[in-house]
Design goal:
Blueprint (H helix, E strand, L loop, with lengths): L2 H5 L4 H8 L1 H4 L4 E3 L5 E7 L2 E6 H10 L6 E5 H22 L5 E6 L6 H11 L5 E4 L2 H10 L6 E4 L5 H12 L3 E6 L4 H12 L4 E5 L24 H13 L6 E5 L9 H21 L5 E3 L24 H17 L7 E4 L3 H4 L3 E11 L16 H11 L6 H21 L4 H21 L8 H4 L1 H4 L2 E5 L3 H4 L1 H5 L6 E3 L9 E6 L8 E2 L2 E3 L2 E3 L2 E3 L9 E4 L6 H4 L10 E7 L5 E7 L4 H7 L4 H17 L5 H16 L7
Parallel strand pairs: 4-22, 5-6, 5-12, 6-7, 7-8, 8-9, 9-10, 10-11, 11-12, 14-16
Antiparallel strand pairs: 1-2, 2-3, 4-13, 13-14, 13-21, 15-21, 16-17, 16-20, 18-19, 22-23
Helix pairs in contact: 5-6, 5-12, 7-8, 8-9, 11-12, 14-15, 14-16, 15-16, 23-24
The chain binds pyridoxal-5'-phosphate (PLP).
The site of pyridoxal-5'-phosphate has 18 residues, from helix 13.
Amino acid sequence: MTDSSNTSPWSPRKSAELYGIDEWGGGYFGIDDDGDVVVKAPHNGHHTAVSIPQVIQGLQQRGLDMPVLLRVENLIDGRISALNDSFAEAIGACGYQGEYRGAFPIKVNQQSHVVAEIARFGERYNHGLEAGSKAELMIAMSSLSNRESLIICNGYKDAEFIDLGLQARRLGFKCFFVVETLAEVPIIIERSRELGVDPLIGVRLKLSTKVEGHWAEDSGDRSLFGLSTIQLVSVIDTLRDAGLLHCLQLLHFHLGSQIPNIRSIRAGVLEACRYYIDLVEEGAPLGYIDLGGGLAIDYDGTGSTVSGYSRNYGIKEYCVDVVEAIQESLDAHDIAHPTIVTESGRATVAHTAVLLFNVLDVSNFDPAPTPSELSEEWHEQVTNLWHIVNKITLEGLHESYNDVLYYRDQVREAFHRGDVSLRMRALAENLCLAGLQKIISLLPQMKRIPQELEVLPQQLADIYYGNFSVFQSLPDAWAISQVFPVMPIHRLDEEPTRQAIIADLTCDCDGKLSKFAGPEGESSTVSLHPLKEGEEYYLGVFLVGAYQETLGDLHNLFGDTNVASVRINADGTLDFVHELHGDSVADVLSYVEYDPQAMFKEFRKTAEQAVRDGRISVSERQQMLSAFTESLRGYTYFER
Ligand SMILES: *Cc1c(COP(=O)(O)O)cnc(C)c1O
């Protein structure tokens, strides 16, 4: 904390700086004068703000308890507009002769309300959908009404997949099969002859351009997907022989997700353009160039390529760079400008959902008051420890740290031998805590902090127990150590004085959040407020709209959370558009093949036997049975 924060009172402004909300919020989130987090919905060039604590109140009145996934429909619209408008601007500014067509990759968020909203709002931009499986293609065909919008089919395709896509063609959809493997080509040829439909075909390239970040493996020669140059030549020959080369209209590549560096994107586009030029010379008409996904999100607010959870460019720069690179490459060969397609998933939906939960409890490592005087009765090593703790100074900080641990361990050994009593050991452990906390308080004044001491604040950080499951709601935080912005959604006019990590309900060592975006980069703790007696404390995890919902699992049988979709009106009022109650206990039990009714019958038998044996009364039996039924119907999370 800076010196000024000690002298001037805390303010929402300081909270905004501390949590970096203006950096990662993309303009959609902020803090109001009362210290509440607000969602800012774009409305004709200005914003309408609604406070999240107010939304929570509305949810509670509607019986939706914590945890809740809050989806803001306006933000879906806002992101679709931002993407399409930015491309339109770049195309206009560069004098590019082609158009832009977006295709939202359904795998990034398959929830029907999300896809429906993308299809509805995206219609004005001819925004389409990308499908990676038969199920997703069926979603695309039943969601889109605009025949100008694209349907892009990626992934391995069997005859049934291809038949579905050919039917989509018949119905007037611009439905592309992107060839990922040689094996698909004969099936496409055979099925389109059989059904008498000319297919629209794309080829997925395996580029040599490598990207940084978590998906570096997706790029380069070893990438799992796409055709090598050898395979590409073979596809061209096969299509030409079949008289279908005129159907090859799209060139596809996907460098990976969350590409941190704009230079990799530019390099990838330039490399793809080389293929584009030669494919045209081979006689393929083309007309579409599809960049796949990769447009990154600034999860940690650093705006840099260092962490992998951010990027060194914005959406406008992305669009200009892509348009310019294609234009320059193709103009040199007098080739007409193609329609630019992107399959931006993360960038379209990440901002649109916030996970909200309450804190159930806190455990901390604060010492109880320590004795101000020595006692004759103490064990010698406890006395030594007391002396050390009482003379900790900045100058000898590292040495004091070593001494504190040394004497603590001496006491522990003495305890094992039976020379120190339980109470004496507890006294020593408390002295040790007091010493370590004193050391932590002096750390900021140290010129260079030794590594051993640097980790102390995390080792002694508070543990805030949140009413949620990392595995269900934030699977990427567990699986790929993804950083998501986490902060309190109220009390931001008060200084958050505690350093904490956040544990979930699963009682699994991995069920925690211990990597946070801080003002000075990644941090192992987050600043939170002390709990207030009789008052809920709410935290929000932001930018969770991409990938998290379907990847989440049933660890410890915590099920889907409640979901609320809201729409913010221009006058600041709120429509609760969809309310979805999360899984009940009976739901999650049936997912793992239990039969809740059979379980109830078994329980009833056991209870009846207990009545017969005289252990419980009949009325107690009735109470137990109704409690059991109630539990089956209940929410899987902690209910107050
Ligand atoms: C996953 C994926 C995307 C989406 O990537 P984002 O980085 O989320 O935009 C797009 N296209 C393909 C082929 C993908 O596999």
